[in-house]
User: Fold these one by one.
Assistant:
Number 1:
Amino acid sequence: MIGSPRAARSGGGEPMRGWAWLAPWIVGNLVVFGLFAVDLRHLDAGMVSPGAYWGRDFVNVWTAGRLLIEGRLELLYDLAGYHRFQLEQFGRIGQHNYSYPPLTLPLVLPFGLLPYPVALLAWLVATGWFFVRAARPWWERATGLPAWLVLATPAGLINIWAGHYGFLIGGLLLYGWRNLEARPVLAGICFGLLAIKPHIAILVPLVLLARGEWRAIGAAAVTVVLLVAGSAALFGIDRWIEYVTVTLGVQAALIDAGNSFFRFMSTSLATGLLHWSMPRMTAFAIHWAQAALAAAMVVHAARRGSIEQVALLAATATFLVLPYAFNYDLTVSAMAAGMLLYVPRLQGWERRLVLGGFMAAQLGMVLVAAGIPGIALLLWGLFVVQYRSTVIATVER
């Protein structure tokens, strides 16, 4: 049976009593409960909405695996050819594209060998297990709650609904930071493996440089070079040329998401400002100004705080810095907010900001529907509390 968080694990004081601690999880997940319900209601031969197949973005993982098995990799970054292949596999599916670099192909191969429903289940179980294992020491020490609950945060359930990489990326980040002091080479390898979604690691080099972690930096650099060179040798340099010249442009275009569903899931302040019809240069100037501030605060904290504090702070800041990112990758940020929720010493306004950050992956979608760049604003609230906690804790020591 799941009990309430233990006060001894929260730095003393009065924890939430009874089952009150469950409220943020229930309220924070109302949107995805609705999304699952809509998908089930409209499920028809695997289609859950016009153009979307159940498992949603996992269709790209499975498709890439099938293309590799069938020896048709020339279609991987060919938008028209890729779509034709998916029509053969899924029927009336809408336009998708494979947005990941060629070095991800060994990862997707096993899933392409399985029937789609089995592959989807295996993907969610394997990546979920990996994330739980990575999160367990920090999560259980801070909250006294079972580690599997990190899968049920608002970001975690959105990731399950979307069939995405959030648990895998989050697990690599956590394993990297957890091993940094004792096994820096292993940490660097974990960070290097983040090249499967390289933009999510944008602040990792800054933190490592600020802390002088040269062995981890070297291991990460070697890992990336080997992954790129190995994938070019195995799958051809043409795949990399197509990825850089075609796919990156397609993804960058999603920053200005217009009225598409992508804007509801975007964590980017730039996306929200562009939806207000703000001039492009102005929107990006504002975005990069706040991104620079967030990055500077992370570097400042990196020289003062513990690895755990800085790692979780950087995870949140990543989505303030990036102009292109989505809520299903907020798994570590949601975990960080969940850990802070059970710290009794937080002031009332801090707890409210943390609660907003915990629910950002889904509550932010509601705010976006109201015309407010909600995910970015909620993440700023969480980030400020994390930064204060890191700096104040250092001063108190």
Note: Residues 7-15 have pLDDT under 50 and may be disordered.
Number 2:
Amino acid sequence: MPSSLSQEFAPQTTYLNTAAHGIFPARTATVLRAAVQEMAEARMDQTAYYERVEEARAAFAALVGLPAERVATGSAVAVHVGLIAQSLPTGTEVLVADGDFSSLVNPFHVRPDLRLRQAPLEGLADAVRPGTGLVAVSAVQSADGRVADLAAVRAAARAAGARVLVDTTQSTGWLPMDPELADFTVCGAYKWLLCPRGTSFLTVPEDGGGLVPAHAGWVAGERPWDACYGPIDDLARSARRFDESPPFLPFLGAVPSLALIAELGPAAIGAHNRELAARFRAGATELGHRPVPADSAVVAVPGLGDAAPALARAGVEVSARAGNLRASFHLYNSGADVDRLLEVLADHAR
């Protein structure tokens, strides 16, 4: 990664936890501080704030290779998935991967009139069958970093007449994806896209994918400022009809963060991230551990989750997930960070 990134990031720990939350670039922190000050001094320009939401929408769309008209904005993945779940006809079979993230799975589970079925990630495509209506899967598994075979899932779904929903929260920003592999995607942008928490995106097919705009508020109107009161008969003719009313601060911060990801390029970021992850997998193996095999920026070491508190005391930030020690590597990390993690793990073992 470019040396100029030292001007954007100044972590005070060995931060290897982007899969939980990304670090704000300096440019993002500057925008957020200024916005907070504006709001405290009653100098808010709400028209300009809504314009920034549109900038964020367009920036995300460019990153994922779709027109902005197919992107809806929101504040949480579970809300987007809930919208999809509530739009499915009674009796629809939804196929998910065993152990996938709950925000992707539970909105279907809480509808008892849907048929939720689970299958191992590696066999997900083979588990698609006639009558399956939707396959929902994370591009990268939160618990252990495994990468889904989305091409196989898409091919199987098409053969069965099913739609595909992909959660790209753990992948967008470092793992480019062919937009044709999914009908719907959901993405929490506060991880690899370095946006404030409260920024998320939903992408839909050109025809809306049969979604019902169940939480359509005034921002969902084709001309929002002319439709602030009473029923809205003219909903937006784009994915904006599925928008939540935006929280200003998260989306103000999203614009500079998304710009940085675009400047560096997800493909280049991904190559950097995977190189560091491979270095850690090799080092952990030398220490006698067995990391989960995956060509991923997320590395999980089964049975080592209890080491996370000791690592934190040593200034190394990772996560414990499903019994795994989970380390995740992003553009602000270096080989020195990997070496520090391995050093502290070796000391912990002793």
Note: The mean pLDDT is 97.
